[in-house]
Fold each of these.
Amino acid sequence: MAEGTARPLTTDGDRLWRSLMDMAEIGATTAGGSNRLALTDADKAGRDLFVRWCRDVGCSVEVDAIGNIFARREGVRPGAAPVLIGSHLDTQATGGRFDGVYGVLAALEVIRTLNDAGVHTEFPIEAVAWTNEEGARFAPAMMGSAVWSGAQALADAHARTDRSGCRVDEELRRIGYLGDRHCVPGPVRAAFEVHIEQGPVLERAGRQIGVVTGIQGVRWFEIGVDGTSCHAGTTPMDARRDPIRALSEFLPELHRLVDRHQPLARLTVGRLAAIPGAYNTVPKRATVGVDLRHPDAAVLDDLAAALESSVLAACERHGLSGSVRVELDCAPVSFAPECVDAVQRAADACGYHAMRMVSGAAHDSMHVARVAPTGMIFVPCEDGVSHNEAERARPEDLEAGCNVLLGAVLELR
Ligand code: HGY
Ligand code: MN
Ligand code: MN
């Protein structure tokens, strides 16, 4: 901290931690993680708690037609466009206590701090909880921010179903979050999201703050291979049309393809199913869910093309019919320099060791950045572990990230 400069306003890290632990009680798993899959009763309970806390600090709360929650603290300049700060409350089924929820509760802590300090900003501040960021129950991921930004049609999102056939709109209605606010962005001054890094970069570099300059591209593929179901004991091997024969050829090929694009390319096969799924019946269909990522859009295109030809060629060799459907397609995003610089200045003013970096994980800010100047702030998580019940973050790092979020917002006033 330079001599003579006023100490920046800081947030209450203990209060933030208490809020995080209170929220973590909802959907707590026995292994110490969180399970608040989107639009489940646990997600509802988390949403209700967040809404109550926001109303307790004087925010007006609106919910839009895809369930995004906007908790508004008024500014002093009538008609000024809001600054959005937020993230998501939904988790993976075996998620941690910080992914997403930290960004939502840090936004609330910023509002609590401004109230305590009697600080009024010209613009309104809206703390946001985006619906279904994870895409773990209903694909695609980042659904709420996608609909809000115009990247996905509301009707398409409403019609998406989970594995048991429940529709998004029915579940939103059931949990009381099928809101009447239109899913259109309106003017937004800027947006910030603070999040755990979910990777090892900050921890390895010994830095407390990540000044995020952008997010790598991500694409999801739903691969289907159709064969013919038949008896496992009586059907000769050369008389079968077994979809698993194609999978056992193209999956190794996809990994070899990505191995040739290291260290940046990422391939994850997170969903596998054989239908009907009996030991003694050759499957009539096999489905594979693939997540492919790369920071360079052109390379991601090449990898996607190679994936599709590998799948279809393997099916052809075995006389099977194959399909590759793109379930999610988010191009790499670069954040607005004014927001990146505001985050940097806020980190510098607090005296934190910061570094600039690109996000390996996807975030709602990918969609928000398409309609408003956006920035992100990262803090380390232990061993970079996330999407895992063992996800851990240090209270002092969470407080530091929250202070930078507050500082970045105040940089704009
Ligand atoms: O998929 C992602 O990168 C995010 O963590 N949901
Ligand atoms: Mn997240
Ligand atoms: Mn996540």
Amino acid sequence: MSNISLSLDEIFILAKNVFFKNGCDEETSNIMADLVMKAERDGSLSHGLFRVPAYVSGLKSGKINGKGNPDIKIISASVVKANGNNCLAPVVLNKSIPELIKLAKENGVAILSITNSHHMAAMWPETEIIAEQGLVAIACTSYKPAVAPAGSIKPLFGTNPISFAWPRKNKPPVVFDMATASMAMGEVQVAKREGHKVPLGTGLTKEGKDTTDPAEIADGGVLLPFGGYKGSGIAMMVELLAGALVGDNFSYETAEKDNNDGGPPSGGEFILAISPDKLSDTDWDTHSSKFFDKMKSMGDVRLPGERRYKNRLDKGPRHINEDLVNKIKSLS
Ligand code: NDP
């Protein structure tokens, strides 16, 4: 399998062209290309160029509106509601997160409730940007069923990612961003494409048997939640926060309504922002820095997000799967 080298600018242009040629306006194309480029830059490979063909499917079928605008309403001192109007989630986020940040800074806490938007991206971009403004952030979203609740061999939960970001003065935020599945389906698909095995416990075959073959999981099998019933509880929480609480679908309802064009279905997202300046009477930054230092002094510990930040320092070309690049070019 061969790779080709593309600079970050070339990745941006490749992505921008394909979004623009498939019905996105200039603004949406720029926002999406920026997100794809940043995912490749940081090594979030399952959410960079790899996702572009699926976005194109959703644009081509008309499910995703590449020229639309979300409706953003300030409901109260601490609630922002964004109806995505079938735009891509990064567009909705670009327009609603500044409102969330403003309310959280003024009032100590604020929630952004997003509906009718098309997600499928990584979640660190939203929590990181909120934490860069000195706020703690938690975000989650559901998807279509791919993960069996503890005790079942049938999918009910999405891979339901959850991201948390902690702000640091004069340092990048500490950010974790993880599927509540034992492995994100995107990673399973990458492993299938690259011919790698996945760890036992990642998922089951369609007959409910343990397997290390990513194809058996991706094609008719099922993922398992991380950490057995504990991860199952967190995946359930994500369904409730990004579904019933914000006023959007559970994963199984999303699947019932989706047109199955291969593009990301319409769904909701929950984002919470909290101001430590308003909540804490202590020097929270020095206090938490000591905690992070202590963590890092305990052997081979690294903070979540550090891998991405290290990748980000490399401004050089990225080595992208050639078949994928050719496929994206053909879609332009
Ligand atoms: P990983 O398991 O690769 O990583 C999860 C988190 O753990 C990351 O923040 C990572 O930081 C951190 N981490 C990894 N290894 C270590 C370590 N040794 N020590 C400390 N921290 C560590 O992510 P997933 O495969 O679960 O998810 C990948 C992406 O897929 C996420 O961005 C997620 O949002 C996205 N996703 C999106 C979905 C959607 O529907 N929109 C559905 C499911 C997943 P670092 O990045 O620095 O390695």
